[in-house]
Amino acid sequence: MKMVDVGAKAKTERVAVAKGRVRMSSAALAAIRERTVEKGDVLAAARVAAIMGAKRTPDLVPLCHPIALSGVEVDLSAGSVGVDIKVTVKTVDRTGVEMEALTAVSAAALTVYDMLKSIDRGMIIESVQLEHKSGGRTGVWTRTEVGQARLKSRRKS
Length: 157
Hints:
The chain is α+β, with helices and mostly antiparallel strands. It has 4 helices and 6 strands; from the N terminus they run βαααββαβββ.
């Protein structure tokens, strides 16, 4: 195993978007909406966890480069079946931020679970996935509507 040498790569703008969901009971959803969760504001705590997760990714994923993040945007919503999570991570660096976006979604989902486990231990963390990435040698990648991957090549010759 080794950490890939990115020293010769140019610094470019890179963006990654990841999504996920915590599926839960109607009682757990009601507690979020009514703000009656004993530990406090579930969505606020999950937002902070996502940002912290993105920032601490190299501490959790062994071969991940520590990079300077220029932005982490977290969107959380209590939907019809659970909490939907979307995280956008940006940097200007030599390597991408896909792992940071996926880690952020995972940290947010785990925080939601932790805060609501007294109400619903049967929650399901699901569909944690990369939706979009741009920048770097491979260009733009976007998940299609049917769940397949599509690569839009913008490689330079």
